[in-house]
Amino acid sequence: MGNNSRIKKEIFANTSFEETRIAIVEDGRLSELFWERRSSGNIVGNIYKARVENVLPGISSAFMDIGLDKNAYIYISDVLGNQKDPIDRLLKKDQEVMVQVTKAAISTKGMKVTMDVSLPGRFLVLTPFQEFVGVSKSIEDATERGRLSEIIRKIADPATLGTKGCIVRTEAEGATEEELQIEIKYLLKLWDTVQGRFDTSRAPALLHKDMDMTLQVARDILSEETAIYMLDNKDDFRNVEEFVSRISPEFKERVKYYDGKTPIFKAFNVEKEIEDLRKIKVPLPNGGSLIIQEAESLCAIDVNTGRFTGSKSQEETVTATNLEAAQEVARQLRLRNIGGIIVIDFIDMKKASNRHKLVENLEAAVKRDRAKIRILPVTRLGLVEMTRERKRESTFSLLTEECPECHGAGRVLSSESIIIKIQREIQSITMGRPGGNLRVVVHPILCESLKKKQALLEKNVHRGVKLTADPQLTWEDYRIILE
Predict the structure, then answer these.
(1) What does each C-alpha distance from 307 to 219, 230, 311, 318, 326 come to in angstroms?
(2) Which of 412, 465, 405 is nearest to 440 (CA)?
(3) How far is Cα 346 from Cα 349, in angstroms, rounded to an integer?
(4) What is d(CA 185, CA 471) in angstroms, rounded to the nearest whole number?
(5) How far apart are CA 73 and CA 66, in angstroms?
(6) Which of 114, 117, 153 is nearest to 135 (CA)?
(7) How far apart are CA 317 and CA 146, in angstroms?
(8) Which of 139, 197, 237, 382 is found 20 to 30 A from 92 (Cα to Cα)?
(9) How many other C-beta atoms can be found within 10 angstroms of the C-beta atom of residue 65?
(10) Which alpha helices (DSSP H) does 248-376 contain, by range?
(11) What ranges in 5-115 are assigned the alpha helix state H?
């Protein structure tokens, strides 16, 4: 899917109980999901007055108290000052600094912060500690880039900005000079407020909270290609409607309130697609499939071919499956919010031209992803390695927790393995104790398998065995009772 193709985008927001979920649907298929839970809250984008807790020159990092349970982490590249200096010259214990959260706490890692604070608006990003003024690289049209460069140079002159910088966002395509002028004034006023709070508060303190998720989506995603933004919570709807009529009145009519009896995600077929996000296997249209397995900072994706189709040659079939898989991989990465290192094992292709075509296809497919992505060429083993920026935990880790039975292995002992284990334990218990019957209590499904082997079991353990099913027992749990 190229970046220039016209896509029909719909946004559905569901707020219920302790969470808000926002689904982005492109051409009738769920393509992105935002999730915010009251318990954890979203802190990415928040600005704090922090206190330096400890500086670790060995790893060029420091930990800071921002007033939350866990200390925040900063690497030297995110510290303001001369980057050639060691971190213990730039930061001192108990120093008070302004920081912004760039990554939420993921698994065992604390949140990541930067001192290079930025304030995003709908069309512009104000960068108080950078002097660069420019236009986003994602705006490819040369005429439009030129027009916006001219406007921004005019309205972001040193008299207005001082030593601050400003970047024109992709969403500014088609924006007027007046709109950009209004926004730059708003962002400068907001920065004065943040600066004032920093000067008057004691660390640790929250100086600026980024807007809630329903408003962030209105600011960052609602655009010309969005047909509708529908919310099922009246307060959220009013807030978004008011916000949109202020920043983009031309889209106000597209913000709608949903009051149907059927839950919004069920009514628009989103719930079923969310259920599927827990599945490891993802089917491809022509019979192939993806197997997606996430570890903490690495994700392995395996592409499997389906049944051999038609009269095409094997190379053609394999290439077609791989191209299909590339599209689906791009979609799943966004949808599942998978970050870190991703290794994709595509099916081997003999022709170099097909391998090149595959990487080009994958690059085109990830263009719609707002996360930073880097794709490396196909390795000699036929693997494609890529990295995807991660700001929040993945949907899979948000939805699930470690299975108490398999402890994260993803598999449990087979029935045959458990039966052999039971026999071994019986042998150890009854050694030197002749005669007497036994009762074995197991999981109901295992009980059925054991009954088929009862005669063999009794022969092996040299005594009568009575089998009992207990639905309260977990799969690998059993009890052996001497009677």
Answers:
(1) 45, 41, 12, 11, 18
(2) 465
(3) 9
(4) 66
(5) 10
(6) 153
(7) 45
(8) 197
(9) 17
(10) 264-267, 270-275, 314-336, 352-365
(11) 87-90
Q: Got the DSSP string for 96-122?
A: EEEEEEEE--BTTB--EEESS--EE-S
Contacts of 143 (CB under 8 A, 6+ apart): none
Give residue 150's identity as a one-letter amino acid code.
E
Q: Give the orientation angle of helix 142-155 with respect to helix 177-200, to 10 degrees.
A: 50
What tokens appear for 94 in the block? 């108990």
d(CA 286, CA 240): 41
Claim: this prediction has a pTM higher than 0.70: yes
Stated length of the chain: 483
Alpha helices, DSSP H, located in 123-176: 142-155, 158-161
Contact call for residues 73 and 112 (beta carbons, < 8 A): yes
The b-or-e profile of 360-369 (16+ CB within 10 A means b, else e) is ebbebbbebb
Q: How many CB atoms lie within 10 A of CB 322?
A: 27
Cα separation, 327 vs 356, whole angstroms: 15
Nearest residue to 467 via CA among 435, 434, 443: 443
| End-to-end Cα, the chain, rounded Å | 68
Contact 338, 294 (CB under 8 A): yes
Q: Do 215 and 239 form a contact (C-beta atoms < 8 A)?
A: yes
Residue 237: closest CA among 210, 264, 262:
264
Residue 394 DSSP label: -
Task: Give the other-Cβ count within 10 Å of 381's Cβ.
Answer: 8
Angle ∠(354,284,2) on CA atoms, nearest 5: 55
H/E stretch holding 186: helix 177-200
CB contact set of 441 (below 8 Å; sequence gap of 6+): 468, 469, 470, 473, 478, 479, 481
Give the closest residue to 332 by CA, choosing from 360, 361, 288, 293.
Answer: 293
Beta-strand runs (E) in 136-223: 165-168, 205-208
